[in-house]
Records
---
Amino acid sequence: MAWFKRKKQEETLPEKAPETPQRYEYGLSKSRKRFREGLLSLFGLGMKIDSGLLERIEAFLYESDLGTAVTELILDEIEKESRKKLLLNEADIRELMLRLFGEMFKDDELSIPLEQNQPCVVLVVGVNGAGKTTTIGKLASHYSASGKKVLIIAADTYRAAAIEQLDIWAQRAGVEIIKNLEAKNPSGIVYDGIQAGISRNADLILIDTAGRLHNKAHLMQELDKIRRVIAKVIPDAPHETLLVLDGSIGQNSLVQAREFSKVTPVSGLIVTKLDGTAKGGSMIAIRKELHIPVKFIGLGEKLGDLLPFSPAMFVNALFGGFEDRS
Amino acid sequence: MLEQLRDNLQTIFKNLRGQGKITEQNIALALRDVRRTLLEADVNYGVARSFIDAVKEKALGEKVLLSITPGQQVIKIIHDEMVRLLGDTQVPLKLDGLPPAMIMVVGLQGSGKTTFAAKLAKQLKASGKRPMLVAADIYRPAAIEQLQILGEHSSVPVYREQNRDVLRICRNALAQARNSDVNVLIFDTAGRLHVDDAMMEELSAIHRELKPREVLFVADGMIGQDAVNAAKAFNARLDVTGIVLTKMDGDARGGAALSIRSVTGKPIKYISAGESTEDLEAFHPERFANRILGKGDVVTLVEKAQEAFEEKDAERLEKQLRKNRFDLHDFREQLKMLKKMGPLSSLVDMIPGAAKLKNAQIDETQFQRTAAILDSMTREEKSRPEIINAGRRRRIAAGSGTQVSDVNRLLNQFDQMKKMMKQMNRMKLSKQAMQKMKSMPWN
Ligand SMILES: Nc1nc2c(ncn2[C@@H]2O[C@H](COP(=O)(O)OP(=O)(O)OP(=O)(O)O)[C@@H](O)[C@H]2O)c(=O)[nH]1
Ligand SMILES: Nc1nc2c(ncn2[C@@H]2O[C@H](COP(=O)(O)OP(=O)(O)O)[C@@H](O)[C@H]2O)c(=O)[nH]1
Ligand SMILES: [Mg+2]
Ligand SMILES: [Mg+2]
């Protein structure tokens, strides 16, 4: 089941960020329909919870990558509820899930502190291939469209053609980029980039870093060094550290969030590739354990395919949508 | 890799072993834990269930319950079932027939296709083939430049063309290969979602026309439950011939390996474990299962050693490993050799019982620092590490541009190394085993 409809891959240059409310509604009605087909079939109206049904719910929860801890938590709640009430119907279960996850996300800070900081420095981190570079292109376009002066720093000095890739995104988004094709040392570039950002009066500085697996000590040290270099130029920066997670990754996402947080406190998540059939359920476990909010989700490979995260949307997409409003 | 799954299973097995007599009930209990472990390792829900069902059925057989060592029996059943699920034998690439042999590399976005294509090209070249890489990803920004650079690293030619028609590019690449001495063509295709019909059709068209001998589905080793959906869809369209798992240098539990294998029925052919072009291993189900089950993987270790050194080096290594006492001279030598064998973390994985060591920080730059420190020691110090007192430590630190704490750490590391070597000694590193494993995956 796809969360959202994927737009056709066109050859034309990507458009600017679309009006998000419509995208929400659109994606939502689609996902509602899909979830009706999926989850609804599990619940006959007024059906009593029995072990067979529980098992089917369990399968559904696991298959959304929610992981054992969250799945068991939900199943426990359902069982508790079913003891209180003889007949548990779909509305009860929906309510229960909405309550659980609604509470979890309710006080999350979803915006990036642009107004409080000038420039606002955003460090983007994650494992290899998660979607960092693409997401930076999208973020740059998003904020540049809303009138901010955006500057990108190309600090992935490792991956083949990483700088060229980011350069193309910067052009697409129409923002400036600080790069050095010869550089081998990412913190040097970051230092220069932030200085440049200050002197050019940038509102937002986005730093693209090389993908790194969180179990590689030397690469994590390198990240720590980048963070320290940033703080050397602007003491309270980075103002935001975004961890980009591939939405199709399973339980390792939680480990990634845990490990990256140890080196550079992660203030927000961006979950990518949710235009496929993966549901990104691991973000719930992360929210639960580490209290890191999801700030954006990635829905494709074009500039506009980034949406600010809405907890209600997620809860509805994943567990709601039992009723078809459309 | 997989150490978490391995640790969990080991705990379960330890409990099983502790129980002299196994009842239906405690098997059920143990299997519930195994199931949980599998699910935490991202094994697909349905796949985990059939796995448990199969084990349960066999474990509840009368012979098992009545045997003297029922715990061992259950472990054996779990192990065998794991191997069966991963695929019983190692399946090499099929590159025979009329040249050029064509290999199509496909998969989701960011799974590691381009890196793998370059690694494979390098390996094939080393084995005497004449490969060429084809840049068939025209969508992702700088994808062609990426392949070009990786191709240069591997000294493998890259076919590239400014053209918006991917099928034409592939066709032209084939024509050029036929007019040259290239005998293997590796197509690096763009990442795509399995639900993207237009993009999937593009692959189908290439597949129909070129009829490649191999279609390798590259999956991120960290992938979750969605693995089965993607793998099924790619397989249905392209009749995949093999699976590649990437980023296995991470700590993902790799349950996807079991899921993808079992829903497609296609063999896992390679394991990619690192960003550099050397980090590619053939997939061996038996060894992999052993790795999961905590038996270690001596064979792979030996094979790696063989690739990295000449025969006589390997013999010397073997002797080194057998030696019970060694000094810092040996340590320095070991470092040189280990360095050649690839990332230390992937080696530690193969040593039985060494999973715990991983927490003791495996760091590659530390490696270089260690070498510098060792080189700043006198011969005597290397032979008799116990004489290295505070004064000497300060001198060594200054000489190697490090801190005294680094020198201290090294001496501790040396002790750890000694323990590791002792572990290895206990295993039989026979010369025959080394000979036997010499065959390369595509032979
Ligand atoms: N640590 C690690 N990183 C890897 C491995 N294989 C690939 N990578 C990294 O993962 C990222 C994505 O790899 P690519 O080879 O570009 O992946 P791709 O499938 O070609 O990506 P697209 O063409 O964008 O779909 C890069 O940063 C690679 O360096 C691996 O085995 N281990
Ligand atoms: N379908 C889809 N693909 C994405 C998304 N975000 C990134 N990608 C693709 O994933 C691959 C890796 O992205 P990249 O930005 O290079 O990742 P990085 O290595 O973390 O910088 C590229 O092929 C991107 O086009 C997304 O939201 N949806
Ligand atoms: Mg990148
Ligand atoms: Mg690629």
Note: Residues 3 and 400 of chain B are 35 Å apart (CA to CA).
---
Amino acid sequence: MNGPFEFTLGLGDDALIAAQRLAEWTTRAPEMEEDIALANIALDQLGAARLLLTYAGELEGAGRDEDALAYLRDDREFRNCLLVEQPNGDFAVTMAKLLFLSAYQLPLYTALAECADERLAAIGSKTRKESAYHLDHASLWVKRLGDGTEESHRRMQAAVDQVWPYVAELFAAAPGAPVDPATLRPEFDATVAAVLTEATLTRPETGWAPAGGRDGVHTEHLSYLLAEMQVLHRAHPGAKW
Amino acid sequence: MNPREAAAAVVDPEIRVLTIDELGILRSVDEDPATGRVVVTITPTYTGCPAMDVIRADIRRALTAAGHPDAEVRTVHAPAWSTDWISESGRAKLAAAGIAPPQPVRAPGVVPLTLSVRCPRCGSPETEQLSHFGSTACKSLWRCRSCSEPFDHLKAL
């Protein structure tokens, strides 16, 4: 495979699967403004996914476009991290997922904007602007819920504990990649620590750290998500607007 | 009509008071010396914005009408679009249409001085943000505490 194909595919899949999960909140959010906000964030994630998957297809050189990559691969061919494929759970779990994802994507996209690969630099300079709003949104909610009522605090702490194990995989070293994710960990830790402190929440100890997403080994959740996301395209291959 | 005027007249389908020129989406309109084909270069606002596909189609339609059926629409992502690119006339039209224009984009690291967002209806600075995300990707939802009207604000990007 030429160039950063696997790396680019992984980032594209992260954004694509995150978009699909966030879109599941449409018509189910706790209030109208939040319904629109999560749909908007999903749209931004999908926009990034389209740019990244299109580039990945070109790098692969097998004639696969963004649709072929998004709709015609099975779960073993997906390279997204396990964090994004986890079910949404309650609103606190979704905000914990979004906090950790955006606190990872913002420094990642910012670093991409400076990396040697021209195409990824252009994508990074675009997506970092949008992911700053995602991090801001998630941080606000985690603080409100954490430092809110006894019930919201309990749920938010439980959500952080539940999602935390999936953070480690985000920063697995990839020395050859245009941006080595391991170098992003300090900024991630600082961002998350500040939010959790203000939210009166405690950061769990790092113990069990599931991984495998970058090699196509996924949890049982991904194939159900793909079945729903891909069914229309697979039922009508090559359909166009 | 020359190709530049034709392309510059295309309006944003969501914010119909602004043209893609005023929004800063339209970067250049050139004639390829070798083929004589017109090449329109644009930079998208938000990566996921569905209006961009409509804008591309509208540009092709406008150029076909202006006598350039084989015009090409090219998308360039770098440098990334910023709300700072919106022209003065564009900002005035936004305010007149009841949408509060964007603040200047703060360079990262500059001490964030939060300027007040004025209500496009009554001009009061007594306004508050209801949600970061409004009716479209580029807008947030605000409310004026003076005249208590809700309004959209184009987020600085």
Note: The beta strands of chain B are 26-31, 38-42, 72-75, 99-100, 127-131, 139-144, 150-154.
---
Amino acid sequence: MARRRSDAAGKVRVGFEVNGEAVEVVVPPQKTLLEILREDLGLTGTKHGCELGECGACTVRMDGTPVLSCLVLGPTCEGRSIRTVEGMAHGAQLHPLQRAFADLGAAQCGYCTPGILLAAEALIEANPTPTRNQIKEALAGNLCRCTGYIKIYEAVELAAAWMRGEDARPREESVYGER
Amino acid sequence: MANAEGGHADRRASNREAFARRVVGRAHRRVDAAAKVTGATRFADDLVLPRMLYARLLRSPHPHARIVRVDTSRAAALRGVKAVLTGRDLPTPFGILPVSQDEHALAVDKVRYVGDPVAAVAATSEDIATAALDLIEVEYDVLPAITSPEEAIEKAEPKIHDYAKHNNLQKLTNLEFGDVEAGFAEADHIREDLFFYEGSTHLALEQHAALAEWSPDGKLTVWASTQTPHYLHARALARVLDVPASRIRVIACPNGGGFGGKSDPMNHEVVVAKLAMMTGRPVKITLTREEVFYCHRGRHPVLMWVRTGVKRDGAITAMHFRSLLDGGGYGSYGVASMYYTGALQTVTYQVPRYKFQGARAFTNKPPCGPKRGHGTPQPRFALEVHLDKIAEDLKLDPAEMRLRHLVPPGTLTANYLRVGSIGLGACIRKVVEGSGWERKFRQLPYGRGVGLACSSYLCGAGLPIYWNDMPQSAVQLKLDRGGGVTVFCGSTDIGQGSDDVLATIAAEMLGVDLEDVHVVTADTSLTPVDLGSYSSRVTLMTGNALIQAAERAREILATHVAAKLDVPPHRLVFAGRRVFDGTNPERGMAFVEAVQLAEAAHGTIGTVGSYKTPTAAGRYRGAGVGPSPAYSYSAAVAEVEVDPETGIVRVERIWIAHDVGQCINPVSVMGQVEGSIYMGLGEALMEEMAYRDSRNVMHKIPSMLEYKSPTTIEMCDVVTYLVEDPDPNGPFGAKEVGQGPLLPVPPAVANAVYDAVGVRIDEVPITPEKVLRALKDKAKGGAARCGPSRFPEIPWPEATRVPPPWEGGDGSALGDARRSGGSGAPRTRRSDAVPVPEPDGPRAVKRAR
């Protein structure tokens, strides 16, 4: 563990990596990763939803694994690598998942979307050809109240195909309804 | 260059058709999508300002108590605390409906539910504000709680609100459209049924948040996650803070889900505004998830009784419907919700004689208000299960029985609702065919079943919430010499895609690309008034307003382009970022040139458009709730599997056909249909606002884990058919899709459960315990039913008799001279969105003239 200096007010210095860049914050030990990302680092893409680890809106990836950042204490991030939604696009070039979610309307209000994108990204990296049930399992911890999840499944399937290098297109019925 | 189909020489409209629609009706990425998938969208809780303070609310631990004393001195002394507020500091009441302005930002004399805000603190950090709450001492004189509508009927004391009509019943109505007894006499068969629809909450992922700033030039700016910035601006902040509306600016941030839960002006929004004015510093509040449960304004629990007379072929001869709503601690939209439980029964199947009796009760629980469908999913559940039983009694197929008695297009119903286009027949046929209904209904093995239900919903409330003659929606258009188009409109995107609707229609009307259009919305200083995102009004009303503004802009451009090209203006077509002669497409110019040409001759180009709904046909008290410029229609078939051992109901698939009139962007339409089905499924199977049975009416499960909502595991497959039967009142014929598709889902599931295992669950949620109880009852030869057993006696007011149109009625009540035509042409807006404020209503508001 790197040297950690806590000053008089009991704050702790934490060094870690966010979206590939080194960061260092000095925070009370009970401050969560979610609060650090939003308040100390200004990365407001990750969202509060329930403060109790029940909704998934705060999902980020820690060393590749999806975690609920509202349940991760800041000091435990020392030396870890965090990935948030802000790190998914390359400049103006959307990540395939972002492109598929945008094209299919899998983001309606968009509040749950960052958490779902990161959970889905981890899924595809572990399993490049996820079945519909595997997608449901992977995203069961991410609540969404707008979409009914169906466009989310279709967007994950579409993005996975793109990421496998296939020239996939959404089914016509997916956006126009059955004939 | 646009494809050169031969343009029609003379008729302008056909010119537009000649170049088939390029944007409207074509699936495209929503204009708000890129920001949402990159986390760039700025929600209210994402906003930060320099020197910003944080506010927290102290909430009542008692369901019903008088406030004897509030001592905030120790809290005020805590280091970091900058201001403390109690009810005394904000004495002016407010509320969304003029007839029930019964709320205070902080309780003044009484608390009426566990969670009712009592005091507020602003401090330099949220932790300090939270700590300060514990230092505020409140002395309560605890009162007995009213825990159910039945108690509200019987108990005069304690009175939750003095303006309640009878004991703790806030409001009652008794409306008769024709003689139902005569109708029952003509019937071959009469059936009575009882239903109960449990309350549920919106559970939007985003907790409510607001930020206020009071600037040295005496202006107040409030950012808030609200669905109705106009009402928050004019009806609450200006009133309560006693600051002229002209000095207040409300900016509605994109809502992280609304569903009706953010359409009341809220305590915390008024509180942060006051704290900002007191401290001179920006003040921000974000509610915790538990606080969002107490805010509520969700689905009313409703007990319902219905009696219907039918002929042998299923034709309805008369219907008598009663509803009792558990309203909670405050009025909210409740009076309108009550009227809605009796309004839309007549817009699907013909009902020649109709009687509706409704009552809303005050109880010491978080206040109920509008949730997706606002007061219509409950009666629709009752009606569609009731009709399923009638079909079985008459040995008719439920689908055929409905197809035979649909309301014809262009009908005026018994309760004076004007039905324009009605694609319900096509919807029923689509889902019957798609689901394999004919080979499944009553033919699947035990444990599997299918159920059918239909519904209808408004395309926007026909009248504004506070009665006035001003437009209900307005748009300003700015054409820039760079070729860009900016649409300014007060509408608020709550995830339903209202920004994309504006961009799509503007691009279509002016022939530019979506990327050339900039949309500025929901800012009371920058954008003209739109009443808000509720009752599925936004596409229809902002769309029509935008069409008017765009036509005026085209007029200006066409005049100058026609002169330059020596072409009659009506032959000009706007398409492919060009303005050209429809009969000779090469003869034209780029849109940007046309703008520059016109600007040079005409001056800066800016146009406005606005929209007013058609006058309501009904003129009786309560007639203002239900009218709409158009009605959408849906039909759904649900296929379920019921495990007789556990009682667990699994909905495998839902086929739904929705008459949307005309898609503006099919991507948004499909999302709204699937999202509506999801929310209907949650209410059908698992969602309930559950309270402890004891006197201390505490919410049992105020958290997202205990309050069950469907995850990816529980959501069913969906097969969606979009029926496009354009309505003349809709922009490009478009009707609503945001709420309608929710309505048929709970009854279709209940009917499918009956088809699967032969038990009737006449209430939602249809939980395993209820299914098992009914199965055991059936095994013992009992009624095989789980549901309410009685409707309580209610002292209904004297009936308001309104002869239906076919009995010579003119929309007004008999013997009600005040309202009848009498003096010349009836005043345009004589009926009101909500009943005329009774003299004894709390501080009846002065009418906006």
Note: The first strand of chain B starts at residue 53 and ends at 59.
---
Amino acid sequence: MEKEKFDLYCRFNKFILEGEEKEELYSLVQWRLQQLAPLAELDCGDTPPMVYLTSLRQVLREDTVEQTISRQEILACAPEEQDGAFVTPRVAD
Amino acid sequence: MATMGFCDDWKSGQSSSVAWTEKALAAAAADDLNCLTLLDRQRCQAQSQEVEQRMAGGFNGPLVGLPYVAEDAIMVKGQISSGGSRMLANFAPPFGAEAIRRLDQAGLVLIGKANMGELKMGGEESSYFGPVIHPLDAARRCGGAAAAVASDIVPLALAVDSLGEVRRQSAQAGVVCCKPSYGTVSRFGVIANVSSCEQIATIARDVKSAAALLSLIAGHDPKDGTSLPQESYTYDLQQQTAGKKVAVLLDYQTGDYDRRCLEQGVSLLRQAGVEPVEVKTRYAAYAHLALTVIAAAEGCNNVSRFDGVKYGYRAPEYRNMEELYCYSRSQGLGMEVKQEAVLGVYVLAKEQYQAYFQKALQLRRLLWQEMEALFREYPLILTPLAAGSPYLAGEDRGGKLSFRDRFYTAIPSLLGLPAVAFSAGEDETGLPLPCQLFGAQGQDGAVFAAAAALGK
Amino acid sequence: MAYEVVMGLEVHAELATNSKIFCACPVGYGAEANLNVCPACAGMPGLLPITNKKVVELAIAAGLVTNCQISSETTFDKKNYYYPDLSNSYQITQLYAPICRDGYVDIHTSQGDKRIGIKQIHMEEDAGKLMHNDMLGISLVDYNRCSVPLVEIVSKPDFRSAEEVIAYLEKLRSLLRFAGVARARFEEGSIRCDVNLSVREKGDPHFGVRTEIKNMNSLSAIERAIAYETERHIDAIEWGEPLIQETRRWDDAKNASFAMREKENAGDYFYFPDADLAPIEISPQWIQQVRAALPEMPDRKQERYVTEWGIRAKDAALLSHSPSLARIFEQSADLCGNPKEAANWLVGEGLALAKKHGIAIDDMALDPEKLAYLIRGVEDHTLTRANGKKLFAAIFSDNVDPAAYIKEHNLDASVDQGALETLLAAIVADNPKSVADYQGGKTKALDFLFGQAMRQLKGAGEPGEIRRILEKLLRPE
Ligand SMILES: [Zn+2]
């Protein structure tokens, strides 16, 4: 993985790293990608992908409202709360 | 009749839940392995007293009143559920896991939470609360749940079998781990890593106890859309194993250690009247690579919700939203989680999707087809579980060794197959040689019975 | 140089369900912050999505009314990006196997009829809302809207004018509302539209550089945004300035579009299938059930109003446009047995009053029984047309009881036949000159007598009847 791409993917993940820590992460990811090379090079033809491990279908619920946990309980976990809302720095539009 | 009971050695003659709980609490307080991240004296004392009352009223069952620990990824209402991460070190969720609810109902006593690799994504060195010292060799590492059972703090534990590390750690600590087929145990209230294939597994000294514990948490849960419709499970460990064909996968004979594990496993099989047959596969050697790709993608996605906005760690200083995100996540998540997350984005990005993520899903199907064919002839498969002894202190930093050993644990994880991990013997230093048996989806009982037949 | 603008639309409509798409929280407009929230839609770990069956059925219905193919199997995918209103940092949507594909909507504009292609319809969850406080330099995050079910209806790039876009949106809204799929109100954000726009020289087979305009919250804003953006593209082409493919935000107050901050993921959302959500199979039987439960659609209504009830085509189009108006019309027509009259009152009086009071047609609440009562009254001459209008206005704005209103305001036109004849005979007797004039051939004299009668009757009595009696009285023996 090129450094540029690495930087981009760190940024997407909202990781800011510097110096040694950044180098360590880069080399770990590089090492892991080397290990993955045999898979990337394998020819699987047009085998359909397998996403689901069960044959479950139609897992649906009826359109009924149910609320068992209160707003207070959810907001109790928030780092910062105001007027029943979570608070962040002013977000750019 | 003592041999007919459950966890009799651990109970050591005591017969009340309060006494068992006090014993576990005392052992936990004296724990010098760093097995536990949290000990909830109040909850478990109240629980044991309540269980005593229920027992006095005639309530009973094989594991009633026994204490257990749950890995920290399994959430408990109102209790810190950190998943071994700084990110969640202050997170007390307003709801708890279905598995915990079922064990509450079944009258088991939750002592506390077991230490674990960070968010199931990191290896033995990655917990924010420090690594777990191996119960059999203080220079080595283990997982918290396996170590808690192996060091007799508790007779039973729940742990999330995400990439199979729980199986490896249990077998290498000399205890047994039963992993069910995907969809057997509700994942509701479990901090997710590899959503498409992980399951809660049970750990005990013997298969009988681990399987009994599993049957208490197994069964349909409408809150988990991947939960199978079967309402309840019982595992018949008396069913015939002798005469069955067991495939020994040659793919896993790569060095001295795994060869010795297999030899021990094979000799156990022979003693039990089972003839092992050596089989070479086409795709087994790719399983851990496919699992790694899928785990990185799903893990990356599952930890993206940890952003410092709603709960969990928020960096003390930031000047804007972007900094709040970046500092909170950079400080709150460890190196190995970051590694998985960057890898996850890599394998999902448009440019690499076909070569990595799509390929991993295709390989999953190819392996599934190959295993299905294999199971028609051999209902059970034996493999070793590690390339070497439990990791020395510091050795797994960066997760390279736990990645290496994923090679052995991957197939049951990737395909959602039932598996049982155990020690097949000892090396010259007395450390267990880890093996596993696994079978086709839904054959959980047959797999566990086979391990029981091996004396596990 | 002649230019052609090419547009495609992405319309998001909130589905009319009670609960959210993947959790059981209520769906509601205007609730207090985070009241309609649970751990799942607040982005906590350990929760698993379970799809609301009604969402699937409404999405099928949306596909049926837009003539789409309904997929036999449909699945969900995750779309990853960070934004504080997205509690999980991913949105569950459909990329690989959307629920509907390949449909169309027929529209009518001043240029005639046109068919707009639908590329696909997919189900997805909505994001929450941010409220900014510039004074404190903070944003408040409200997840009430998080996981509210949406369908995204993606058109083909078939639009060539703003008029077509508006006609399509009107038509689509009406279809979704009739089918009970969505409330589809721009003002509350329950329907939203992004426009993909490019400009090319007329006749050029290739598309120009495409920009996407977001954040338009009314039909008129969409019209203005299209005009602005088209102009911007043409200017750039003529001046040889480069256009870049980007997403732009429409600022209605400034009447201009602005480039949105470039997302750092460079347009990649790292989509992948959501293994927590099992595939949904949609059988022909299920589709048939949904189809059978669909009410009559506006096109069919319009046709039926004209052919079966003899309503003027223009009125039929107006009456069939809105589900609530169509319901009022059909029910009052049934009750009074005179569809033409019901149509006249609703189109003539109803729409005029709605316009005068600034009430949206969808919000017109008229009791069909009261309207039917009014129509019957006019028919049997107990109510004059003029007084009918007064009554209509009172029903319209105050939902008055017609019988009580008529009594209170002395609007009853029924006069005892004997009394009427006596009164008219007296008028004839009092005006011998007019009688002579009339009988002498000056038929206009009748009008004078009629005027006298009307003045004395103060609105009571049916004018035709009065005229008839007067003529009879004036006929020489
Ligand atoms: Zn919710």
Note: Chain B touches chain C through 40 residues (CB under 8 Å).
